[in-house]
Design a protein that fits this description.
Blueprint (H helix, E strand, L loop, with lengths): L2 E4 L5 E7 L2 E7 L10 H13 L1 H13 L3 E3 L25 H6 L5 E4 L3 H6 E3 L3 E2 L7 H11 L4 E4 L7 H11 L5 E4 L2 H8 L4 E3 L13 H5 L2 E2 L1 H8 L3 E5 L15 E3 L5 H14 L2 E5 L6 H10 L5 E4 L2 H10 L1 E3 L2 E3 L2
Parallel strand pairs: 5-7, 5-8, 8-9, 11-15, 12-13, 12-14, 14-15
Antiparallel strand pairs: 1-2, 1-4, 2-3, 6-10, 16-17
Helix pairs in contact: 1-2
Length: 328
Amino acid sequence: MSAILTLRHTPCIILLPLENGLDLHWAKDCTGQPERTPALGQILREAIMNHPVYAVVFMAMLALQPVVVSANAPKDAAPSAFPLRPQYIDVTVLETADLAARFEEVIVVDVRSQYEYDTLRIQNALLLPVTDKSFVQEVRRLRESSTKPIVFYCNGKTCRKSYDAALMAQSSRIPNVYCYDAGVFDWAKAHPEKTALLGKTPMNPKALIDSDRFKERLLPPKDFAAKAEGAAVILDVRDRAQRDTPLFPFRELRAQLDENAKIDAAIEQAKREKKTLLIYDAVGKQVQWMQYHIEEKGLADYYFMKGGAQAYWDATLGKVSLGTAKAK
């Protein structure tokens, strides 16, 4: 439950419940969808919590001015478009318009994998994967080389990597860091002229693959296996560390996502032999980026396994929970 306090001649203040208390945020008004600005909310919260004088002044404002408190505040008081923001209240975010306006004044850092970066990225972005052990060290070197603001980004609103990157930098006392949590897809839609697709800038907006186009290429494990019995080239793109048992022994090819030569060979084989290219990964997440490469190569007949190898074993053996198998 959240509450909205409306003070005369002031912005709307939104109180959001957290485990350790209330989260305060500014919004322009309380008549429509509030525009949440976490940075200002952080300043207000710290002022109230850490400085008794400010707390007294704030309480006096509440006492002297008409206040409307709603226990049933609109659900959009915490915009669902950015579901992770309430969990990262100490991270300062940049909106798309802000990043565009300051584009030449900041250092943009992509914190995803090499393969994702090579496929689709913000123009001139540097690559520093947040999963690398040397991430903080590399960010510190970057800060020592420039005083420009550092802006981290990843795939989008439900991706934690950019938030985590900002928190890791802040906790290491690296100043002037931001998070562009709208992500690369929103940026590509808004600014294709400053987006690189497969290394080419500007990108063609029509080349951006949305979720509907991706879903059209997904087959449930049962249907995928049935198609594999026919004229098909089967490709396992799991990382070596993820590979245990092949799903289609003696019938499948193997290539990691960064092994472009092997992937291209499989694509060309499918085209040459006029067969369907069937691709699966570990959990169905990595293949989405591969779709750009396949379409650039002009292959029309291809599908991915929905949920990857994990979904295949779940469908075949039943889901495993706490050491017991549960049949679907």
